[in-house]
Amino acid sequence: QVQLVESGGGLVQAGGSLTLSCSASGRTSSAYTMGWFRRVPGKEREFVAAIMYDSSTYYADFVEDRFIITRDNAKNTVYLQMNSLKPEDTAAYYCAVRSSAGFSKRPAGYNYWGQGTQVTVSS
């Protein structure tokens, strides 16, 4: 089992920055893909970014070069640096781990999930 704990959410004004962290514990592996998703109440979870074992990264189109995902395997931690935030970015952000091979941007492709951290961007 893998346990994930997100932190770093909060309230920020439009145009500001915020960095989210996700710490993993349990049966972790540097071979796992780690990703970030977000959810607005009443809507499905939406892919934000992912990083693979070789540090290859993938981003949703709406990111528009504003976000950066990184990982520190020694600390079993993944980060999401968010810049130029927009009110449309307001959501609960979830860290997730994919333990199977290959890349996926579907929530069903990930095996473990954190509890989420709220990001609110004011206009």
Structural description of this entry:
By secondary structure, this protein is mainly β. Helix content is 0%, strand content 51%. The chain has no helices and 11 strands. Strands 2, 4, 5, 6, 9, 10 and 11 form a 7-stranded mixed beta sheet that branches. Strands 1-3-8-7 form a 4-stranded antiparallel beta sheet, with no helix packed on it. The relative contact order is 0.32. The model has no long low-confidence stretch (mean pLDDT 95).
In short:
With 123 residues, this protein is an all-beta fold. It has strands spanning 2-7, 10-13, 18-26, 33-39, 46-51, 57-59, 67-72, 77-82, 91-98, 112-113, 117-122. Strands 2, 4, 5, 6, 9, 10 and 11 form a 7-stranded mixed β-sheet that branches. Strands 1-3-8-7 form a 4-stranded antiparallel β-sheet, with no helix packed on it.
Cα gyration radius (Å)? 13 Å
Query: Which structural category fits the helices and strands?
Result: mainly beta
Termini distance?
A: 40 Å
Q: What's the total number of strands?
A: 11
| Mean pLDDT value | 95
Helix content: under 10%
Largest sheet: 7 strands, mixed
Q: Note the total helix count.
A: 0
Secondary-structure element order, as H and E? EEEEEEEEEEE
**Which spans of ≥5 residues are poorly predicted at pLDDT below 50?**
none
Q: In one word, what is the shape?
A: globular
What percent strand? over 45%
